[in-house]
Design goal:
Layout: H1 8-18, H2 26-44, H3 53-67, H4 74-77, H5 79-96
Helix pairs in contact: 2-3
């Protein structure tokens, strides 16, 4: 997903989560969400952010860390959740085969 492909709904959900009420940072927030989605997918596997709540939560958390210039701490602090999420994606994939 490119920054341009970040849906208005996803952007608004993230802004509400971060308590951002202005539009001046929308371009940067779209980029943070896009890069965070790519990073979580690279770590855990492919998922649909629109339908997978755990994946969406992890993307939001990584974007929050990136927004606050602390992205280097994300994987350390969320290691268990990232591993569990990656395993759940493999299990879900196996169930559909």
């Amino acid at each position: 997903m490119s920054p341009e492909e970040v849906s208005a709904e996803l952007l608004q959900d993230f802004k509400a989560r971060m308590r951002i009420t202005h539009d001046t940072e929308d371009g940067n927030l779209r980029w943070l969400l896009s890069s965070s989605y790519a990073a979580v997918k690279a770590t855990c596997g492919d998922f649909d952010i629109a339908t997978n709540q755990e994946g969406k939560e992890l993307v939001f958390e990584r974007a929050r860390y990136a927004y606050n210039d602390s992205v280097e701490f994300f994987e350390v602090n969320f290691m268990r959740r990232l591993h569990a999420f990656g395993i759940s994606l493999v299990v879900l994939e196996d169930e559909t085969v």
